[in-house]
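Late entry, written up from scratch paper. The run itself happened at the end of the previous shift, but nothing got recorded in the book at the time, so transcribing now.
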Amino acid sequence: MKRVYSFVIVLCLCYMNTQSQSTFEQVHAIFQAKCTGACHAGAQPSGNLDLSGTTTQVYNRLVNVDPTNPAALNSGYKRITPGYPFRSSLMRKINHGLDPQNDLTQAEGNNMPNNSDTLKKEEIELVRQWIIFGAKDTGITYNANLIHDYYNGLGVEENTAPLTPAQEGKEGYQVKFGPIFLQPLGEFEFLQVYNPNLSADVEITEMHAKLPPNAHHFVMRSVTQAGANVMGVAPLVGSNFNTQILVYQYTKFIGIWQFTDDLVLPAGTAHFQDSAEALMVNLHMHNYSGSQILACSAYLNVYTQPAGSGAVEMKSDLSTYGGTNPFLLQIPPTGLRDTLSYNYTVPGETRYYWNIQSHTHQWGKSFNMFKRNSDGSRGAQFYDGNYNENYTFNQGYYDYTHPAVETFDPLMEIDMNNGLIFEASYLNNGPNTVSFALTTEGEMFVTYFQYTNELPTAINKVVADNSALQVYPNPSNGSFNLSYNIVGDDVVSIALYNNIGAMVKTIYTGTPGWGKHNLHIDANEENLSAGIYYIHLIVNGSATIKKVIVMNR
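Output as recorded:
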C-alpha cells in the first residue's frame, strides 16, 4: 500500500495556521498576561526586564540582548538567542521542567513567573518553538493546533536527552536538534546550523547519536562561517532546492546515523574540527502513526581532545551518482529492476577506509560495492547491501531505512587511481519518473564513507602548553573537570590556587603514564567558595596554568 505523506511545514518555514497573529505577537501576548503584572513592568522591573509595551519595544528588549544576571551573562547567554533555546536566559527562566536539560541553575535566580500565573506547557512550548525557528518578529513559525493536540493527549513522549559529556566528566559538547512537531503520517527533513562556540580547534574522537523513533537519518556536517551567515539559524527545509544548493556549496559531510548508535573512531585517529567553523545538523523523520503527534528531538554527544594531540586525521566524504550533479539520477517507471553503476576514483591518492555505507530511498532494491581493477573491470566485492544494519548477517533483502554499515578492522587500503565501483538497483512501479531529492518523494544514490590517508600507529608526542590542559565547564556551578595529556613517564603535579596566589589544595602528584587523563573536582566536597581559582599543571618542572571561575552554588 502506498503511503501518503503531507508536509508539516511549507517551504518558506511558515505553517498554515488558523490564527492570524504572528508567532511573536502570541509570545508577546503571553508575556503581557503572565509576566507584567507584578514583576516586569513599571519604573523598576525585575531583572531590569520590562515586558510591557508594544511588540516592537518588547522584541528589541529581548532578542540578542545581554541579560543582567551575572551567571547567565558569564555563560554567554542572551535574553533570547535566536535558534538556541538553551542559550536564551528568558527561556531558561520560564522552562519549568519542560526541557530537563534547560532548567535554571541556582546562580541564575528564580523561575518566571514566580507567582500563581504559571505558564501552561503549550505556552512555554510556543516560546521555545519561536526561538528554535529563529525568534523572528514577524510571520507564523509554528503550528498551534499540533502543539495544542500534542499537550492534550495526542502526543508521543519526546526523545529524552542523554547526559552531556561534561556531566559524564568528559571533554566535549552536546548538540541538540529540535523538538520539531510532526503530524500523523507526516514527513520532514530539516537542516539547521549549530555553532558549538569552540574557543580553540579540537580533535573529535567519538560521536554518540540518540535519535527519535522513525528517524530516517541524522547527519552532521561542518559549515563555513560564510555559509552559516547565509543560511542563518532557523531550520531549513530539505526539500527546498535552494537549501540543497547551499548544502553542496558550504558544507562538508562528517557523519551519518540511521539509528541510535555510537561512532567511536579507531585508536590514533580523529576528525579535526576548526573552531572558526559551525556545524549543520540534518534530521529526516517519518511519522507512521495515523493519530499521534511526534515531538522530534535528536542528540549528538561529541567527545573531543585538544588539537595537536597527534592523531591521524579521519576524513569523511560522500559520493553521489552523477558526481557533482546528483540530479542526473532518473528512475523511469518501467516496473522492472533498473541497475545503475558508477566508478569512483581519486587520482594520485591512497585511502585507508574505516567504514562505508549506502543510502537510497524507497525505490532502492539492492546496493553493492566492489574494488575496481586497473583495467576498469569489477574486482572483489566488499559490501553487500542485503546485510543487516550492523553487517553481521545477510538478511536476504535491502532495507533502505536501515542500510548496512560495513566497518573495516584493519582499515581497508584502496589505491584510488583504480578506485571503487558502486552499483544499485531500483524498481519504479509508479506512473512517473522519479528524480533525485533529499526527501523520500524522490530518490538518492549515495555512498557515505570515512577514511584516512595514512595508517594510524600511535598518538604522537604532545608539547606541553595551554592546549594540553582543559578545564570544563568553565564557569562552573559546583563541579568541574580537568583533562590533560602526558607523553611518557613524566612526573606530574596538579594544584589549585586561589586568586591571591595561595595554594588551596594539591589535586594530584605522581606519574600517571602516557595518554589522556581526566580528573573531577567537586567544589562542594572541597568547600570552595565562589570566586576565581587557578589550576597549575606541572610536568617535569614546566608549568601550565588555567583559570576557572566557581560561581555561587
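Residues 1-18, 458-467 have pLDDT under 50 and may be disordered.
(Scratch paper discarded after transcription.)
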